[in-house]
Amino acid sequence: MIKVEIKENSIAISGHANYAQKGNDIVCAAISAIIQSSTTWFAKKDIKIKQNKKTPLFELTLINDKKENKDKINLIIKQLQFVQKHYKKYIKIIRR
After folding, report:
1. Which pLDDT tens digit goes with each residue over 44-63?
2. Cα–Cα distance, 93 to 74 (Å, whole number)
3. Is the pTM of this model over 0.85?
4. Which end of the chain is more exposed for a tag (fewer CB within 10 A), N or C?
5. Which one of 13, 28, 80, 91 is the catalytic residue?
6. Is 27 designated active site?
7. Which residues face 58 on adjacent strands?
8. 16, pLDDT greater than 80
9. How far is it, in rounded angstroms, from Cα 45 to Cα 25?
10. What is the rounded distance in angstroms from the CA atom of residue 39 to the CA atom of residue 54?
11. Is 28 one of the catalytic residues?
12. How far apart are CA 21 and CA 33, in angstroms?
């Protein structure tokens, strides 16, 4: 299961969906597409990205929490929630 932990200024994603075999997992692909495309919305000075390919773990933290950046984080959350709505067994979103 993919776990998404949402804090005030950060989103951390860990785990695997295990929806299908590696390379055919549409849930993992959806989450990857959301994260990879949305990180381009931010200026490099506005975010910190931590990534570990072994665990796997991805964490995006806002350095500059101006309204525009918070709106972008909220859009990412909405996209993740859309995936969760359709694949509840494979993704869990936790707000802290």
Report:
1. 999 999 988 777 789 999 99
2. 13
3. yes
4. C
5. 28
6. no
7. 13, 51
8. yes
9. 33
10. 20
11. yes
12. 18
